[in-house]
């Protein structure tokens, strides 16, 4: 796969006081070709865990479908919902098993459980990195600068949402592979809420 044909995206995850915000823009590009302006790259795994991805859309869809099935099996086996950390670790195992023919996707897993809000970054080989905020994809370098400058511990959801939109606007203005609006998944103890913002 040539460098010009690698799919781009901008995906962000932020831990807030009351929950987690996951966001991804909607453009599906392949090299210099815009394949779709309505792609979905944020996914609800359970009512308290979600994923936001950058990379090949088919790979992220298959990976999320597999992790959703594993989350349901976990709930049947253990009689309780899977935690955010366990979801990230399960996805890590799936990614590592495919290391010789990997899914071309970078993923942010985030959500709310008994331990509070948390975000994990996963690379295509299954590395799991916990953090308070994250950005992956071709627009990550631009978005992470905004996040690092303005993020603070204990932000409420509205502050986190505004910061996410600001970081996303900056990335969309400068990364040609990202654009056409933003899908935001907000996860709290009460559940998950999705919204789309045209930018």
Alpha plus pi helix count: 4
CATH architecture: 4-Layer Sandwich
Q: Whole-number average pLDDT?
A: 94
Determine the N-to-C terminus distance. 30 Å
* Poorly predicted segments: none
Major sheet size, sense and barrel closure? 5 strands, antiparallel
> How would you describe the shape?
globular
CATH class: Alpha Beta
Report the radius of gyration as a whole number of Å: 16 Å
Strand content: 25-35%
- Look at the structure and name the CATH superfamily: Aminohydrolase, N-terminal nucleophile (Ntn) domain
Structural class of the helices, strands and pairings?
A: alpha+beta
| Main sheet strand line-up | 10-1-2-11-12
DSSP summary, beta strand count: 12
Which fold does the CATH topology refer to? Answer: Glutamine Phosphoribosylpyrophosphate, subunit 1, domain 1
Give the total of domains. Answer: 1
Share of helical residues: 25-40%
Structural commentary:
The chain is an alpha+beta fold. The chain has one domain: Glutamine Phosphoribosylpyrophosphate, subunit 1, domain 1, CATH 3.60.20.10. Helix content is 33%, strand content 35%. The chain has helices at 57-78, 84-97, 140-150, 157-174, and strands spanning 10-15, 19-25, 28-30, 33-36, 42-44, 49-55, 105-113, 116-122, 128-131, 133-137, 182-188, 191-197. A 5-stranded antiparallel sheet has the order 10-1-2-11-12, covered by helices on one side. A 5-stranded antiparallel sheet has the order 5-6-7-8-9. Strands 3-4 form a two-stranded antiparallel ribbon. Strand 1 (10-15) and strand 2 form a beta hairpin. The protein is globular. The mean pLDDT is 94.
């Amino acid at each position: 796969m040539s460098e010009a044909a690698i799919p781009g995206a901008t995906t962000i995850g932020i831990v807030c006081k009351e929950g987690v915000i996951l966001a991804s823009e909607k453009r599906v590009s392949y090299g210099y070709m815009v394949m779709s302006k309505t792609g979905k790259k944020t996914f609800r795994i359970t009512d308290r865990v979600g994923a936001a991805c950058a990379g090949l859309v088919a790979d992220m869809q298959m990976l999320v479908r597999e992790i959703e099935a594993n989350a349901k099996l976990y709930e049947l086996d253990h009689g309780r919902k899977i935690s955010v950390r366990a979801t990230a670790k399960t996805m890590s195992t799936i990614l590592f098993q495919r290391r010789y023919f990997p899914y071309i996707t970078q993923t942010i897993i985030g959500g709310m459980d008994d331990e509070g809000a948390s975000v994990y970054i996963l690379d295509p080989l299954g590395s799991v990195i916990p953090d308070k905020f994250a950005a992956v994809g071709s627009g990550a370098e631009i978005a992470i600068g905004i996040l690092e400058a303005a993020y603070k511990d204990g932000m409420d959801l509205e502050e986190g949402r505004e910061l996410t939109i600001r970081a996303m606007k900056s990335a969309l203005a400068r990364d040609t592979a990202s654009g056409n609006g933003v899908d935001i998944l907000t996860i709290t103890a009460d559940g998950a809420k999705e919204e789309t913002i045209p930018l």
